[in-house]
Amino acid sequence: MKVEQISVFLENKAGRLAEVTRVLGEAGVNIRALSLADTTDFGILRLIVDNYALAREVLKSKGFTVGKTEVVAIEVPDRPGGLASVLDILAKAGINVEYMYAFVQHSGKNAVIIFRFDNLDEAIALLQQAGIHIYKGEEVYKL
Amino acid sequence: MIFDIASETLPREELEALQLRRLQALVERVYHLVPFYRRRLDEAGVKPEDVRSLGDLERLPFTTKQDIRDNYPFGLFAVPMEQIVRIHASSGTTGKPTPVAYTQRDLNTWSDLMARTLSACGVHRGDIVHIAYGYGLFTGGLGFHYGVERLGAAVIPVSGGQTRRQVMLIQDFGPTVLCCTPSFALYLAEVAQEMGVDFKNTKLRVGIFGAEPWSEAMRSEIEARLHLDALDIYGLSEIIGPGVAVECIEAKHGLHLFEDHFLPEIIDPVTLKPLPPGELGELVITTLTKEAFPLLRYRTRDITAIDYAPCICGRTLARIRRIQGRSDDMLIIRGVNVFPSQIESVLMEIPGVAPHYQLIVDRQGALDTLEVAVEVDEATFSDEVKGLQALARRIESRIKDYLSVSVTVRLVEPRSIPRSEGKAQRVVDKRKLSA
């Protein structure tokens, strides 16, 4: 139920993001989803890719600091209040969303959103009980 | 064990009387034998007979590395060449080496002081001493060598290099004592690991490490990886070489300075005024007994503090703190003296923080700012902004606690700070650029 996300430390200077995407592109790694958290000094690029191991290897070989985080990919109805219905379930259980970002691609008529929770396993159990669709890793890498 | 009980446990009063007698003889000698000192003393308006107490030391002129360079090569030697039996030299950072000389009596003194040093580290007859300091113009190898022979232990004069072979010799010859730089000790541990050799299975018991500044964190690492007691030794070729000061194995807390031969002072490197015991400043040494190459109030540029408290080992000799940095790379940030090596030792104590850093000094308005660039590696990386910001704040507060100076930590990518090849550029002072 968990998805492997690769994160990359980036200094705030021109060309670093381009370098990451170029390295991945040359290695034939396809980016499925991404988000960039930024501060005045640095940024953290978070990526879901079709080949985690290869992405990690090529980025490390180019000297990037990379990390691995487990996240959850959730199917959210693409209509007003769709996201709110999912977040309500978590809020009631006191689960914190550390960060979230949307997939570029839709799955059918629903949106796919990546979540990082402070309590991942509890969140998964809750959402499954509520009948919300959580994607398996393999599904997400191929979306 | 104390090698020279009489000299190393002299009551302070007797020690000071001895120091004064030797200081008076020294000033008398250099005034008459070395034109440079005569000129300097005349300029300072001091005659040899004006030295009546140790307090008069303050009236004598300083000697610097530049003075030695200006008198290159042999202008500061105080005896004719017929009496000189050895010449060493330290590598100069600006091309020419700094030559130093010894009479036979100087070599005897040096051997005695190194025997004292080894003894303080728990080395005795029957020990086998592996010397991996370089032999040659550098004083490290031969300085230790003569000391081991004087003590009566067995010496293996390996010198530097050929690391794998050194690991083999440590296994096969079974040395009990290792002498080298602390960084080479760690490198030996790495190579041994690659070779599948565990230092637990060697006979090494004691390591005497010096010739470069190191930290308590590094001591813990060396002791854990090499399975020995790691002790700090201090010396510099201008003064005599190794054998100026050393930790005792009993306390491992400060380096006993052989005050009967070297008269220490701690001064403020800016005002040049003496500082009280316990305060950090620049170590200044007057050689009391050297014949060939005596030095009056030599500014070592090394930063330390002196402690006259008695030691559990029984020596009455004052102790200097582990060298904290160099006064020539000292930064003054909002009135606080900061040495890059102090920042380094704070960084080394934070798990996962790589020892690669750069200090950027700037001035915003009237206020100095100090930024510390630290590389983020996998051990410290977090994919959450708050995680990385917490790391930066943690480093900032540690530095503030230790050095009483506020800094801003900037996290940078690995390998973005230039690597040290010889002298690393640890400090970028933008105040000088814009002034």
Can you offer a commentary on this structure?
The complex is a heterodimer of chains A (143) and B (435). Chain A contains five helices and six strands; from the N terminus they run βαββαβαββαα. Chain A has helices spanning 16-26, 52-61, 82-92, 120-129, 137-142; strands at 2-11, 31-38, 42-49, 66-77, 97-102, 110-117. Chain B has two domains: 81-328, Rossmann fold (3-Layer(aba) Sandwich), CATH 3.40.50.12780; 331-434, ANL, C-terminal domain (GMP Synthetase, Chain A, domain 3, 2-Layer Sandwich). Chain B has helices at residues 5-8, 12-33, 35-44, 65-70, 104-120, 139-151, 163-173, 182-194, 216-226, 340-348, 385-403, 430-434, and strands at 84-90, 98-103, 128-131, 154-157, 177-180, 206-209, 229-236, 241-247, 255-257, 262-267, 281-287, 298-304, 306-307, 319-320, 325-326, 331-333, 336-338, 357-364, 367-375, 408-412, 427-429. In chain B, strand 6 (206-209), helix 9 and strand 7 (229-236) form a beta-alpha-beta unit. Chain B is globular. The mean pLDDT of chain B is 91. The interface between A and B is medium-sized, with 21 and 17 residues.
Shape of chain A: globular
The strand order across the widest sheet of chain B is: 4-3-5-6-7-8-9-14-13
Q: How would you write the strand order of the largest sheet of chain A?
A: 2-3-1-4-6-5
- The helix count of chain A comes to 5
What is the CATH top level name of the largest domain in chain A?
Answer: Alpha Beta
Q: Which class of secondary structure composition applies to the elements of chain A?
A: alpha+beta
Stretches with pLDDT under 50, minimum 5 residues of chain A: none
Mean pLDDT of chain A: 90
| The top level CATH class name of the largest domain in chain B | Alpha Beta
